Amino acid sequence: MSRSFTAMVTLIGLVALGTCAHGQEALTSQEVWRNNYQRIHAEQLVERGILAMQQGEFQSAEQDFSEAIQVVKVNNGLHSRLQVPALSHLIESLFAQGRWETADQQLAYFEWLNIRSYSKNIFDYLEGSRELSRLYLQASAYYTNPQSARYLISAKNLNWRVVRSIEVTFGTDHPLLTPWLYDIVLIHFYQASLVKRRGMTSYEFKSDDDKIIAGWALGKNESIQLSYSIGNELLQRIRSLYAGRENASAVTDALMQVYLGDWELLFDNTRMAMSYYRDAYAELNNAGVVKSEIDLFFSQSIVLPAGELAIDWQPEKEHALDGTARFIAWSTNYPGAAIPVFHNPTNGSLTPEFKVLASFSLLAVNSTEPITDTSEAHFSARQLLIQQAIPDSEFVRDLAHNAIEQLTLRPHLNSGALEDTHHNIELEYFFSPEEHAMIISNN
Hints:
The protein is an alpha+beta fold. 58% of the residues lie in helices and 12% in strands. The protein has a domain at 1-116: Methane Monooxygenase Hydroxylase, Chain G, domain 1 (Up-down Bundle). It has helices spanning 3-54, 58-76, 84-97, 100-116, 122-141, 148-170, 178-198, 220-243, 250-266, 270-286, 291-297, 315-318, 394-404, 433-441, and strands at residues 205-206, 212-213, 303-304, 324-328, 355-365, 378-390, 408-409, 413-414, 417-418, 421-430. Helix 3 packs antiparallel against helix 4 (100-116), helix 3 packs parallel to helix 5 and helix 8 (220-243) runs antiparallel to helix 9 (250-266).
């Protein structure tokens, strides 16, 4: 074989190899383009569905979200977490239509999908659990939902499963437990609110020792007392998570005593609440926090319970510049409860924000001892005045008046002593979606 012929064969081989490589590169590039296109297409479908929700076109939104999920499954696999945003919105569209059975199926699928991520990445599992818990709470808040309590308990049991997962992975004293334990505390407040409205319990709920109480097992007072006890125990546990650490902070412990005082006040244990508040004031003072900051902290009009825990001293977050408290009502199922901080209401209503601006004094009444020395006092709004109402009608003013009277506010302390009268408290009250509907029907 001649050298020229060998060279020619080699050249042809190199050209063919280059052509093949170029072709493979083109195919890879085309695949990447197709994947990117499919992802963008799914995102566009979700955006279109959200717009439909905002316009009240829930069935159309449902179709868009379902199609987006299918695109992700085809392009990224049946178990891809990329379908979670579309799945969440799909479930919200089903809530809005009152299609609870179908929503339950999708919630079960979401939970199955989320559990798969636990063994791979616990932080993905935690993120998914947070969203799933939000959806359960959202379902429980719908006043048209005939089984709101069941969804509330589903949220609580999910949070307990997350707590167990964190304990197994990181230990029983890891600070990562804090937000999940506090969410369970809040759910017990919601549960107590629901029981107050509906009397005896007719659903299952889980206690702290894995005991299941079902049916018409508990009366109203027993159920409320159980929620109080579990909430108090969990707050004490959160406190111990930080107290037992090498760099334990007196400020953190003082703030936890404030939350314990809040919890006592929510269940009308005023004497114990005052004790916690005074101890917290003294501990902050001994920790070297500036006295003017402490007094300012305890002069704020905070509607209870607080939506989230602050374990560090953050006066700039706690102190409203204009002194006006802001309260967004969550649901008539849970009177006196603010919308959860991580909860995004369904964007499916064209209803404008209905609200009132109210002013009142907070008085300590029914005192059997000098009010500065503690008492069995009950803090009640007096001289309540609706300064502004949107829309302005007698019905709206009466509705706001009744709702505001159900709120619990943290009492004011000055130099550690309780102020028995808190004058000129201003509150901006935003009505719940159910109250929106009531206002529309009466105007």
